[in-house]
Design goal:
The complex is a heterotrimer of chains A (about 130), B (about 100) and C (about 120). In chain A, about 40% of the residues lie in helices and about 20% in strands. By secondary structure, chain A is an alpha/beta fold. Chain A is globular, with a radius of gyration of 14 Å. Chain C has helices at about 20-30, 65-70, 80-85, 105-110; strands spanning about 5-10, 35-40, 75-80, 100, 115-119. The longest helix of chain C is centred in the N-terminal third of the chain and has 14 residues, at about 20-30. The chains are: A alpha/beta (about 130), B alpha/beta (about 100), C alpha/beta (about 120). Chains B and C meet through α1 and β5 of B and α4 and β5 of C.
């Protein structure tokens, strides 16, 4: 049993990003598969490398990176949603003469086709939005 | 089929409408701000109680506890679930819809 | 692999870029040769309203994109009857021809599709 999950809410807009994280963590702990997590719309803000919350708050971006590393998750940020909002990968930045990636560890940028494919391959499709 | 409702029933009518749009035997899970809809004595309680007649209505317990709503304060017939059980509900439902 | 999708549109064309991004998603799934139908419900019925002028606010007009959906072989366009009525709309007010479906019938609609999707 595996899940394809779309997150289209930014971390601080509502609780959607938190609910998604706890759901995914619980699913993985139970031995279910997460085929792919697709960050769309404002969900791309979950992948900002330089997010820097106060020390006494949960580190939303970092915990995605850690979860990705621990469970080898495929976290995909939609390229069109990201570009619209100004989140660029290292390669895109390089083409603009900048030297860095805005994308946090554990995420990769790709197109909506990855979401379509995930929905076809996974057993269940779930949307967290706000 | 699993219906996810996340908005407070006092913010909009999504919960009440969901109850009307779900077919008998389907499941509604209240998450995030929608957990306020599980509480006894609110103005939406009659609609929720009516829904319980044909539907399975669950509420995400961590969201209730975070908001200070005790188990004894929720309507009889609503099942409290944790995240693991939320995952199981999703695994056992071929289709899942999030009401936005 | 072929699945049937029901995409539920729940908001107007003025909820940020939600509707544009929904349409991109719909077209991508359809381009993967999947069967896609749309359900317009609650404020989502306003997204089909004839005569919108978002250009006045320097916003994109999504009407042409809805017209283009015909090229993607979208199977059916459903609109919930009660959603239209309480908003004072009828099918004549809409830019596309929809199959009107009553609230009491929505419960059975879900089971006709493999995947329910929304924005």
């Amino acid at each position: 049993m595996n899940f394809a999950i779309k997150i289209s809410s930014s971390p601080y807009h509502s609780q959607a990003s938190d609910t998604a994280y706890h759901f995914i963590d619980a699913a993985l702990q139970k031995g279910y598969g997460i085929y792919r997590v697709f960050f769309y719309g404002d969900g791309i803000y979950n992948a900002l490398r330089y997010a820097n919350p106060p020390a006494d708050e949960r580190e939303i971006v970092k915990r995605w990176s850690l979860l990705a590393r621990e469970f080898d998750l495929d976290l995909v940020v939609c390229v069109s949603a990201a570009q619209r909002r100004g989140l660029l990968s290292e390669e895109e930045n390089r083409l603009l003469g900048r030297r860095d990636s805005d994308l946090a560890e554990g995420f990769r940028i790709s197109g909506l086709g990855q979401w379509a494919e995930a929905m076809l391959e996974a057993d269940r499709v779930l949307v967290f939005s706000g | 089929m699993l219906h996810l409702v996340k908005d407070s029933p006092f913010e909009n009518t999504k919960l009440v409408l969901c109850i009307q749009r779900a077919a008998p035997g389907q499941t509604i899970l209240l998450i995030e701000e929608a957990v306020y809809g599980a509480k006894r004595g609110s103005s939406v309680a009659p609609a929720v109680i009516k829904g319980l007649g044909a539907l399975s209505i669950c509420v995400l317990a961590p969201d209730l506890e975070a908001r200070g709503i005790l188990a004894e304060e929720i309507l009889t017939g609503i099942r409290r679930v944790n995240y693991e059980e939320f995952v199981d509900l999703a695994a056992n439902s071929k289709r899942i819809h999030t009401w936005l | 692999m072929k699945k049937s999708f029901l995409y539920v549109i729940q908001s107007t064309s003025f909820d940020g870029v939600r509707i544009q991004e929904a349409l991109d998603e719909i077209m991508t799934v359809a381009a993967f040769d999947q069967s896609v139908s749309l359900l317009f419900i609650d404020d989502g019925v306003y997204s089909l309203k004839r005569g919108q002028n978002p250009e006045i606010l320097n916003l994109k007009n999504v009407t042409p994109i809805f017209d283009a959906l015909a090229m993607y072989e979208i199977q059916q366009f459903f609109a919930e009857d009660e959603s239209l009525k309480i908003r004072g709309l009828s099918s004549d007010d809409l830019i596309l021809s929809v199959k009107s479906i009553c609230r009491s019938e929505i419960g059975e609609l879900w089971d006709k599709f493999d995947v329910i999707l929304t924005g």
